[in-house]
Amino acid sequence: MSEVITTLVGELQAKPGFKFIFEKPADVCYNCKLREVCAFKLEPNTIYTVVEVLNKKHRCALREGWVVVAKVVESEVEALIDAKIAVEDAIITFKRRQCRNKKCPQRHLCQSPYVKDGEKYRILKVQNEKIMCEGRKLVK
Q: Tell me, what DSSP letter sits at residue 98?
């Protein structure tokens, strides 16, 4: 499991199992006294899952309401990778392939902003369906 991060999430989103995409800190966050334990603790363009909600609330200028202290982890993400390196429990360095087919129905899986080029990932599950793309066999 990923590293557990204690941060702040919106009151309505503070439920175990809730997933959210953190894109980047909003402008109002830069002047907030809670920024270091809130938006500045999270990695941009990352999907997180709430795993625990704690019993502490704070006012939030961005949400014009409350944020709650919660523990989150990076969520599992799907991506297409070369079938030759697709081994369950292996740790790989993800290499983004350039895709020239703008209409490819699988493009969201090989060009996802949530899988970072050059980062290490553990393969949790390999789906057997092979997808041909520009002469390469890819799997999800």
A: P
